[in-house]
Each structure stands twice: as C-alpha cells, then as structure tokens.
Amino acid sequence: MDVIDTIVIGAGVVGLAIARRLAQGGREVLVLESESMPGSATSSRNSGVIHAGLYYKPGSLKARLCVAGRDQLYSYAAARGIPHRQCGKLVVATSEHEIDALRALKANAAQNGVAGMRLLTPAEARAMEPELSCAAALHVPVSGIIDVHPYILALEGDAEQAGAMIALRAPVQGGAITPDGFILDIAGDAPSQIMCKTLINAAGLGAQHFARNLRGLDPATVPGQVLAKGNYFSLSGKQPFSMLIYPLPVPGSSGLHAFCDMAGRVRFGPDVEWVDHIDYDVDPARGAAFEQTVRQYWPGLPDGALSPDYSGIRPKLARTSPHDSDFVIQDMRTHKIAHFISLYGIESPGLTASLALGDYVFDLLERHNV
Questions:
Q1: Which residues neighbour 63 within 8 Å (Cβ) at sequence distance 6 or greater?
Q2: Rounded Cα–Cα distance for residues 247 and 138 (Å)
Q3: Is 269 helix (H, G, I), strand (E, B) or coil?
Q4: What digits encode the pLDDT tens for the residues 195-233?
Q5: Most buried of the four, 25, 89, 267, 348, by CB within 10 Å?
Q6: Spatial separation of the C-alpha atoms in residues 283 and 289, rounded to whole Å
Q7: Pairing between strand 328-330 and 340-344?
Q8: pLDDT digits (tens, 9 = 90+) for 288-336
Q9: 304 and 200 in one domain?
Q10: Are 130 and 231 part of one and the same domain?
Q11: What is the dihedral of CA 296, 300, 305, 308, to 10 degrees?
Q12: Half-sphere exposure of residue 303: CA atoms within 13 angstroms, side-chain side
C-alpha cells in the first residue's frame, strides 16, 4: 500500500488553506474531498462576509484567528485579484434599550484588536445610510465582503502549484490508526484504501462522522454536533444600502444582516433553523419573519420584495450563538494520537479565519515535530 506523508480530509476553504500552507512548507499533501467540486458545501453557502472580530470572547481561537485571518485575507485577495470590497459595517441598535449592548460589543471588539470603530447617533448613521432606521449604530470600517468562488479557486491553485494533490469524489468513510500511521477507507466510484503518516480532519459537516469511524480514536474525544440551517432571501428592486447592515446578535446567529455581493445582488440572512439532516431547500413561508425582522432597521422594505434564495448548514457543536462557542482544534494533547489534528465546529468566522487556520495547523505540526 502506498503511503502519503499528509492527508487533509475536506476541500472547503479551511481544508484548502491548510493544504496550501502544508504544501508550501514542504510537505507531500493529498486532499480528499467527497464532493465533485472544492468548497461546494459549507464554504460556498455563506454570505462571503469578511468579519472584523467583534463578537468573540477575547483570547479565544475565534477572536485571534478571525483578526489575523481578516488582515491576511484582504492582502491575499488584493495580491491575487480576487474580487472583494472593504465596505464597512453598521451594527444597529433598533431601540434605546439595545444601546448598552452596542457599547458592550464595541468594548469586546476593542479587546480583540478591532480598530477604527465609532458609535454613531441616528443622524450620523442615516448620513451614511439614508434608508436606515436605528437608535444608534456601531461603525466598523474593517468589515467587508469577498467573492468566495474565486477565493476557493485561488487556494486550490496555490496548493497544487506547491505540489499538493486534490482528489474529488473521494469520500472518506472511516479508517484505522496503526503504529505506522493511518489507513483510510475511501468509497466513491473506486473504493480503496490509502495510508498516510499525518492526518488532518477538516471535513466540516462530516468531521464528527469521520472521527467516530476512525478505529482506535477514543469516541469520548469527539464533540457533539447540531445542524443550524441558515436561510437567505434576496431583494428585488433598488439596492438600499452600500454597507453591511447587522442587527445585534440573536441566539444562534449574528442576526438577519443585509449584504450586497460583488455582483450587486442584495440579500438578507441567515436566520436559524435547527434541522436534523442536510437539506438546502428554502421554505418561502419563512419570508414573513424575514420581512418583520428587516423592517426593524429598514422600514422602507416594499411588500413582497423578498424571495427565497439559498441556504447553508453551519457545523455547530451546540445550540448556542457562534459568539458563545469556540473552534475546537484537537491534537495529541487531547486525543493522545500523534500525527493527527481534528477540527470541529468551524463555523463563522471560518471563512475569514481560513488562512490563519492554515498557519495554526502548520504551527501545531511543527511544534510537535511531526
């Protein structure tokens, strides 16, 4: 049986960023992806927002990697010609009783190293966004958007140029830990087994399923998983905002935000729909709740202007806000298995943090001399 030095399971933006960094560091890397295209699951089903780092607990992985990854992502996108825009964000308090929460958010973000923020009066906010209604707003100039598909292609190209190989339609069903490394069971059109010395589990929605089917790994180390479906609705008619508009967070998400993608399409979302299986259909009946929520900060939303668009599934560890949980990245200190790193719960801000996540995994391997 042929032995590969390093296998990365998953070719979303996080798996590709890790593969890119490891290959550029001189490793032989094979990426195994179950789908027919890289990034076709979670990575391509989000809003493409470049997050500033407002919400996360200071010192957490999310806070540190979001801020580091944000700066790396802007530089990378500019260098590679990837469409992006540092449009800025307004986080709005829609009533007086939310203003203290807005101040607390600003203080938390400052601890995370987010610079340039300013609290705005309603008049100052309307001077920036005339369609906006609010009691106060937090201006965050470092937030932005990126065209995700070209970013995925750039990561894929970088990884391959550095020598990494990417195998599509190669779902990893499980495997076994051996004294010499890892044997992986690959299904698909040509079922097979392959062996590697170092294994990175970056399978996103499938990370827990794979880990529970890796023989020799203590199942107690595998965290739980819940599926949070986020639905998006698109706007027909004139674009109301030039910036990202966010309400204050709600349980489970950052709230129904307004964003305009690089093609000029305006969308609202995501909401939170707890599901027990992966299903990307958007229920039109959810539009009524969208309209009610959006009108809290945009009372001028015309009747019937929202249409079901797309959805994504967040790989969450519990039914908590993404701001109240952290990324879980396990190495041998947790599971006692050398040469194995497993990433769980890489939800928002995973896209923003992806390049920093690649560096983090590389550094973990270097630290353990793996």
A1: 53, 56, 57, 112
A2: 10
A3: strand
A4: 999 999 999 999 999 999 999 999 999 999 999 999 999
A5: 89
A6: 11
A7: antiparallel
A8: 999 999 999 999 999 999 999 999 999 999 887 667 789 999 999 999 9
A9: no
A10: yes
A11: -20
A12: 0
Q: What is the pTM of this model?
A: 0.96
CATH code of residue 256: 3.30.9.10
Q: Residue 192 belongs to what domain range?
A: 3-46+149-223+324-367
The Cα diameter of the chain in Å comes to 69
Question: What is the reported pLDDT for 108?
Answer: 97
Query: What is d(CA 49, CA 193) in angstroms, rounded to the nearest whole number?
Result: 38
Give the angle subtended at the CA of 186 by the CAs of 183 and 190, to the nearest 5°: 130
Instruction: Please state whether 37 falls in left (phi above 0), alpha (psi between -120 and 50) or beta.
Output: beta
The kind and range of the H/E element at 182 are strand 181-186
- Name the amino acid, one letter, at 245: I
d(CA 64, CA 66): 6
